[in-house]
Amino acid sequence: MKTVLFFFLVAISSTKTLAQTQNLRPSKNMQLCKLTGIVVDDQTSSPLEFATISVFNSTDSSLVSGSITNVNGAFSLQVQPGTYSIRIQFVTYQSLDMAGIEVRRGQQVDLGEIALKVSTTELAEVVIQGERTQVELNLDKKVYNVGKDLSNLGGSASDILSNLPSVAVDVEGNVSLRGSENVRILIDGKPSGLVGLSSADALRQLQGNMVERVEIVTNPSARYDAQGLAGIINIVLKKEQSKGVNGSFQLNTGVPHNHGLSYNLNFRKQWVNMFSSVGVAYRKMPGKSETYQVAIPSDSSFTSKGDRLRGGIAYNTRAGADFYIDDKSTITLAFLYRFSDDDNTSDITYNDFDSFNQLFSNSFREDEESEDDKSLEYSINYTKTFAKKGRKLAADIQFQNNNEVEQSDIVESIGLPGESLVPFLYQRSENDEGEKRWLFQVDYLHPFSQDKKIELGFRSTIRKVHNDYLVEEQDSDGIFQRLPELSNDFTYDENVTALYAIFGDKKRKLSYQLGARMEKTDIRTELEEQNDENTQDYLNIFPSVHFTYELSKTNSLQLSYSKRINRPRFRYLNPFTSISNARSFWTGNPRLEPEFTDSYELGYLSNGGDASIYYGLYYRHTEGVIQRIVRVDEEGIRFTQPENLSTRDAIGLEINVSREFNSWYRIAGNINFFNSQTTGSANNQSLSAETLTFMTRISNNFKVKGLFDAQLNVRYIAPQNIPQGRRLQIATVDLGFSRDIWKRNGTMALSIRDIFNSRKYRSETSGDNFFAESLWQRSITQVTFSLSYRLNQKKQKGRRGNTGEGYEDGGGGF
User: Fold this and answer.
1) Contacts of residue 302, Cβ cutoff 8 Å, sequence gap at least 6
2) Which of 131, 472, 783, 803 has the most other CB atoms within 10 Å of its CB?
3) CB 240 within 8 A of CB 247
């Protein structure tokens, strides 16, 4: 623990010089003139963020001024009257020189749209500069280029998220951001069939090598879907747009069973860009669980020890094409298919003890489960640009059809201590879940000038989910009979219609953005056999405010506010779930109401040439907090159900640091301190809790010239108090090595995930009549070897421009 904090403090102290960057300043007595422009990709017209603008004196070629482009590819700088030459540079693009730029007194010179061409040569001496940094820090979001994280090799999307700073993935696969599980997960900026009915299972089945980067937005503007109290996690899939045929292929194998094959291919001509990706994987994840529970006041107790083996075959494919109707209109058609076939086993041993701690009964429960999951998704996008720079119209239609079927055969045996166990209970269950979703979206961006603009958008989402759950038990005649108290048909219908408007402008060094989003929500749930129907209908306004002040070219300050909502997820509403554990049951709550959060954040960003640092102070106030409540009946059976509590107030400080010390060592670190206070009660029991805790992650990257690259990741999550108990600390270490081969067209890599087998989730839970200690482990230490080959591709192109998916360019996306 001390070592982790030591390395983190060293990284912070080494970045102090960032704030002392000297700027080129003209004489105060000289009238300054503004020089502006927008840098874009010459093929896609996508803006290029972080392109470098250098202004030279035409007389003696001395450097006069410089700047970098913002997220929209725009730059603005001030110079004295005179004649200049300008150089525009961006990694993996050809540099562009513009000579004879004459600036007269009192004149504003707009260079217009400047198009850069992708470089067609690969120079060995710029390979290091051409690699993407592992993390890119921006005020509105943090971008993690996951391909640079060696611990992600051969992993799933769930593994990738668990490696990100301030993100945690629990043993069930639930994702949390800054300590909150209420986070929205999107694929390419939109809800996707790749997330499926159960985001936890779907992320586990999505191969990580199909992911290019992950973007985290902690305080989204009105442009984005209001769902997700803690923010948005956007998973961006790989998609090339370079001319000709290019792509990549990857093969991996590992222990425990982790084998996969995938490719990403792209073919582009003048009027069409076709892209496809396919991933096939076979994984088996051995895990375990342990529970000790004691009854109060009787002091009788039981222990349970479980062994699980989950996994099977997973297949993902994505294909589509961009059709360039003309130089201003593009139609994109895309298709996605996901399929998985898992065979899971769960064995649990129960030992029961009396009040004198004497063993009096043993039992053993076996569950063999098959799980089939299919998702289909079709989408069409139309994008039109106009003669006026920055003006853009985008329209999207998307349809998803997801289905998941789980079938279990359960046998439970019982016996006295020292005697053989005898089967006495036979059960089987079938859980058939399906979802259909339509999405319609239109976004319009209209600039009045380079800095002043307005955005308008509309979105409608129609969701229909069904869940048919059947549980049967064998009677004395050997015939399976339906258990009506556990079986039912549950339907969930959700319609959300949204309108948003955003106005943005810049006054000297201060830029601001004011927005509002209106969402109309209609939700209907029904337990068909009981004819129990519940409806919710509400209209909400979600304002957002963002102010950014440029302290210097590399230092900025931002203040932001947004109002967010968390509609209960399907699993939290569905009253039925797995019966694999006879002593612990999860039940949803169809009458859950949404949570609402007011989120504030003050951020400081220093983005220099070899280092970046971000300080973020945030505060969240949440009403109607949804909390999982544990109750234990007289027989010691545990029931967990989500309920709405009163409020939660969380305040925290997040620090992100990325520093390249020299050509062979780079460090990236994150630490998140937060204090959270929850108030509420249920069944006359106080569920208030306060916690002061933190989580941190340090990534050390080494280059041994001519031999290999290495990466050592250390992660620590401190203990945390929660209603009814506490979560204990977790510390993990990952190690990876990689080496380029085949004239840098290929890479072989070795990854060891969780070296010390310490990624175990431990908790303590208590109530008026019980106390319990639990341990869960999703998977043991994983060793993976991978081999990749790049066809007509450079290694890790540093293209930070827009992906064409509508996420970064102000065109809506959510």
Assistant:
1) 292, 293, 350, 351, 352, 353, 583, 636
2) 803
3) yes
